[in-house]
Design goal:
This protein has helices at about 35-40, 50-70, 90-105, 115-125, 165-175, 180-190, 215-230, 235-265, 280-295, 305, 310-325; strands at about 1-5, 10-20, 25-35, 80-85, 110-115, 135-140, 145-150, 155-160, 270-275, 300. By secondary structure, it is of the alpha/beta class. The protein has two domains: about 1-125 and about 305-325, ATPase, nucleotide binding domain (Nucleotidyltransferase, domain 5, 2-Layer Sandwich); about 135-300, ATPase, nucleotide binding domain (Nucleotidyltransferase, domain 5), CATH 3.30.420.40. It is globular, with a radius of gyration of 20 Å. The relative contact order is 0.18. It binds 5'-O-[(R)-(carboxyoxy)(hydroxy)phosphoryl]adenosine and zinc ion.
Length: about 350
C-alpha cells in the first residue's frame, strides 16, 4: 500500500510517500519538509496569513519531489492523506484542497487525517509498537497526554488549560530578547544558569488530574524580569534555568499522574511515547526517562525528524486508516479545532484555544 501524505497545519510544508506492508510494517520512501521558520522569525511567532501563502507557494513542488524521490506514479497510490486539522485554517485549507484535487484527478481515495492522530500513530511506523500505549505530545501548539488504544481510538487523559509547553518556551524567550523559535534558545541559556535563584511556581503539582498550566509560570518569569529591569546575560540564564526547572518538575508530576490514570483504565502502558518539538529538550527527555522508569514502562521518542511536523506521519496515519477501510469524502471539512477524542467533553473552565479545543 502506497500513500502520499501532506502536512500544512502550522509552519512546516511537508509531503511524503510511505509504504505499508500487509503485515502492518511501514517504510518511508520519501519525506520532504520545508520549514517556514525564516519567514516568521522577525515576527517572533507564526503569522497565519504568511504561513498559508508560503504553503501555496511550495506545496505542489514538494509533492512532485516526494513522488519522484519515492519513484512513484500517482496511479500507483492507494490513497492520498492530508492533515485536515487541527491547525491554522488557511494552511489546512491549502493542504486538504491539494489532496482532494490529487484524489479526484487520479481517482484514488482521500483520507482526512487528524494531525494529532498522526503524531499518536508515528511509533507504529518507527518501531511497530502495539496498542495500548500512552502518548505525551508537546509542541508549540499542543500539550496532551493521550491513551492510544487503537486506530481512531484515543482517550485524552490530560491537556493544558492555557498555553502549550512549546508556546510557553517561545513566549519566555521572546520576553527575554532571545530569538524565535525559543525552545532551543531557552534550553541553551538554562545550561549556564542557576535554577534555584528564582522561586518559580510548579503549576498543577499534586492535582488529581493530568492537566497542565503554563501561563502563571510564564507571568512569574515576566514579573521577575521586569523587577530586574535591564537584564544581564547571567540574569537571562538564571531566568531560563528557573523556568525550565519548573516546567520539568510540573511535567514529570503531570505525566506520572497521566500514567496512573492510564493504568487504572487500560492496565499498564506498553510504552510512554513522547512527540513534538519539546521532546528535543535534553532536560525534558531526562525527566521523561525517570517518569517512565518509575512507572515501569519504556520511553520511546521517535527520531527528531519524525517527532516534529512532517508528511510521513500523515501518510502513515492515512495508511493505517486505509488498511481498515476508513476513507473520507470530498466534503471532508478543514478544521481549526479537532478533538482527538471527539466524544469527550472539555472540562469546565477551560480557556484554551490552541491545545486541541
Ligand atoms: O512540533 P514542533 O516542531 O512544531 C509545532 O509546534 O507544531 O514544535 C515546535 C515547538 C516550539 O514551540 C519550540 O520552541 C519547541 O517546540 N521546542 C523546544 C525545544 N526545541 C523545540 N522546546 C523546549 N526545548 C527545546 N529544545
Ligand atoms: Zn505537530
Amino acid at each position: 500500500m502506497l500513500v502520499l501524505g501532506i502536512e500544512t497545519t502550522c509552519d512546516e510544508t511537508a509531503a511524503a510517500v510511505v509504504e505499508r506492508a500487509p503485515d502492518g510494517s511501514g517504510k518511508i520512501l520519501s519525506n520532504i519538509v520545508r520549514s517556514q521558520t525564516e519567514e516568521h522569525a522577525r515576527f517572533g511567532g507564526v503569522v497565519p496569513e504568511i504561513a498559508a501563502r508560503a504553503h501555496v507557494d511550495v506545496l505542489d513542488g514538494l509533492v512532485a519531489r516526494a513522488m519522484a524521490e519515492a519513484g512513484a506514479h500517482f496511479n500507483q497510490l492507494s490513497g492520498v492523506a492530508a492533515a485536515a486539522g487541527p491547525g491554522l485554517i488557511g494552511g489546512v485549507i491549502v493542504g486538504l484542497t491539494t489532496a482532494k484535487a490529487i484524489a479526484m484527478v487520479h481517482n484514488t481515495p482521500l483520507v482526512a487525517v487528524n494531525h494529532l492522530e498522526a503524531h499518536a500513530l508515528t511509533p507504529r511506523l518507527t518501531c511497530a509498537l502495539a496498542f495500548p500505549y500512552c502518548l505525551f505530545l508537546a509542541s508549540g501548539g499542543h500539550t496532551q497526554i493521550v491513551a492510544v488504544t487503537g486506530v481512531g481510538d484515543y482517550v485524552r487523559l490530560g491537556t493544558t488549560v492555557d498555553d502549550a509547553i512549546g508556546e510557553a518556551f517561545d513566549k519566555v524567550a521572546k520576553m527575554l530578547g532571545l530569538p524565535y523559535p525559543g525552545g532551543p534558545e531557552v534550553e541553551r541559556a538554562a545550561r549556564r544558569g542557576d535554577p534555584a535563584r528564582f522561586a518559580f511556581p510548579r503549576p498543577m503539582l499534586g492535582r488529581p488530574n493530568a492537566n497542565f498550566s503554563l501561563s502563571g509560570l510564564k507571568t512569574a518569569v515576566r514579573n521577575e524580569a521586569s523587577r530586574l529591569g535591564e537584564l544581564k546575560q547571567q540574569d537571562i540564564s538564571d531566568l531560563c534555568a528557573g523556568f525550565q526547572a519548573a516546567v520539568l518538575e510540573s511535567t514529570a508530576d503531570r505525566l506520572s499522574m497521566g500514567l496512573k490514570l492510564f493504568a487504572e483504565q487500560f492496565g499498564p502502558a506498553r510504552a510512554l511515547v513522547a512527540a513534538g518539538g519539546v521532546a528535543a529538550n535534553q532536560a525534558i527527555r531526562g525527566a521523561l526517562q525517570e517518569v517512565a522508569a518509575k512507572a515501569e514502562t519504556t520511553l520511546i521518542i521517535p527520531p527528531p525528524a519524525l517527532c516534529t511536523d512532517n508528511g510521513a506521519m500523515i501518510a502513515w496515519a492515512g495508511a493505517e486508516r486505509l488498511a481498515l477501510g476508513m476513507t473520507d469524502t470530498m466534503d471532508a471539512p478543514p478544521r481549526a479545532r479537532w478533538l482527538l477524542d471527539a466524544n469527550a467533553k472539555a472540562p469546565a473552565g477551560f480557556a484554551n484555544t490552541r491545545a486541541g479545543f
